[in-house]
């Protein structure tokens, strides 16, 4: 007699958790958390836990500024993947989807699976899954079919990327999920790149809006997610999580004046001042027709002082 697939799936997880594979496999490490820390049973067949309308409204309210920023990116992402039967979910840091894009044709299926606003997709509640595991590990993840912890979720394919706020804190997860049998792992990997790119764009736009009066600059030699905000005095006043990790920026460092040049290596104050002084002297000489005495008078310094400055800066002789 053929063993039921649910029994086989539970046996695979039990064997993996009992082994030492968690030390080398992120997937098995997640299964181990679900089994040993959260005491979940992979064969459990209960429906996903869902928030009530009031709780969902409160969750949306807490994330409202980010939801507003994310709208264009969610639309573009759905345009890219919606035709393959996927839905797009934006979940908060508790694993609760608060915004969704999907085809009305598939709504009934996705609602039954729990891929719907208000369902709780934390790892503690739903075991290994795209949203929950992404939030625990704070990195993009792809959980394809039988990589899920619960047998009842093995028909899903989920690819998810984390979203951090302007202070580098994890606040959301962007997910694309499919319950179609023909959604291959290869296509899921392609989708994962689109999800990661969309999450990065949301982070960047949210960061720009958090510092409306600042100059936003990419950290040289780093990924496009490594951004810093610089005020009119060329001091760093904000940094994305990628920039913080790359440059060792902490909240404590940002409380003190932090020159942008010290982080980016794009020049030091001495070189900047020398360049400004050279330009000022050359302008004065040009306006005086090369007459040092007239230029010195314009600058409010003596002829001898001007000669010393010209010699130090290597500016050619003048009358």
Protein described:
The protein has helices spanning 5-18, 26-37, 53-81, 107-113, 123-126, 130-137, 185-210, 241-247, 251-254, 260-264, 269-287, 292-299, 303-313; strands at residues 86-92, 97-101, 141-144, 157-164, 170-178, 215-218, 227-230, 236-239. It has 319 residues and is an alpha+beta fold. The protein folds into 3 domains: 48-208, GAF domain (Beta-Lactamase, 2-Layer Sandwich); 212-264, no CATH class; 276-313. Strands 2-1-5-4-3 form a 5-stranded antiparallel beta sheet, sandwiched between helices. β4 and β5 (170-178) form a beta hairpin. α1 (5-18) crosses α2 (26-37), α3 (53-81) crosses α7 (185-210) and α11 (269-287) packs across α12 (292-299). The protein is elongated, with a radius of gyration of 29 Å. The mean pLDDT is 90.
Structure described in brief:
The chain is an alpha+beta fold. 48% of the residues lie in helices and 14% in strands.
Structural class: alpha+beta
Number of beta-strand segments:
8
Rough outline:
elongated
The major β-sheet equals: 5 strands, antiparallel
- The name CATH uses for the topology of the largest domain is Beta-Lactamase
Taking pLDDT < 50 over at least 5 consecutive residues as the criterion, the unreliable ranges are none
Task: Please tell me the CATH architecture of the largest domain by its name.
Answer: 2-Layer Sandwich
Helix content: 40-55%
Work out the strand percent. 5-15%
SSE string, helix = H, strand = E? HHHEEHHHEEEHEEEHHHHHH
The number of helical elements comes to 13
């Amino acid at each position: 007699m053929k063993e039921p697939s649910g029994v086989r799936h539970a046996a695979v997880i039990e064997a993996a958790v009992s082994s030492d594979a968690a030390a080398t496999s992120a997937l098995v490490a997640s299964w181990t958390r679900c089994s040993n820390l959260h005491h979940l049973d992979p064969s459990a067949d209960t429906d996903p836990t869902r928030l009530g309308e009031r709780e969902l409204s409160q969750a949306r309210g807490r994330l409202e500024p980010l939801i507003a920023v994310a709208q264009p990116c969610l639309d573009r992402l759905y345009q890219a993947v919606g035709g393959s039967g996927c839905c797009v979910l934006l979940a908060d840091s508790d694993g609760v989807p608060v915004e969704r894009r999907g085809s009305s044709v598939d709504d009934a299926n996705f609602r039954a699976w729990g891929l719907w606003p208000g369902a709780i997709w934390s790892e503690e509640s739903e075991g290994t899954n795209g949203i929950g595991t992404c939030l625990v590990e704070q990195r993009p993840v792809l959980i394809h079919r039988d990589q899920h912890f619960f047998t009842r979720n093995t028909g899903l394919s989920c690819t998810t990327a984390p979203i951090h706020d302007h202070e580098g804190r994890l606040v959301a997860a962007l997910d694309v999920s499919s319950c179609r049998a023909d959604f291959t792992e290869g296509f899921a990997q392609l989708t994962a790149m689109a999800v990661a790119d969309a999450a990065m764009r949301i982070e960047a736009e949210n960061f720009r809006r958090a510092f409306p009066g600042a100059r936003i600059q990419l950290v040289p030699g780093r990924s496009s997610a490594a951004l810093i905000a610089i005020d009119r005095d060329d001091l760093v006043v904000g940094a994305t999580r990628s920039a913080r990790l790359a440059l060792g920026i902490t909240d404590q460092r940002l409380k003190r004046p932090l020159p942008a040049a010290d982080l980016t290596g794009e020049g030091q104050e001495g070189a900047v001042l020398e360049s400004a002084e050279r330009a000022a002297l050359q302008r004065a000489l040009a306006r005086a027709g090369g007459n040092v005495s007239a230029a010195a008078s314009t600058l409010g310094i003596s002829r001898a002082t001007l000669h010393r400055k010209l010699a130090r800066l290597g500016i050619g002789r003048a009358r």
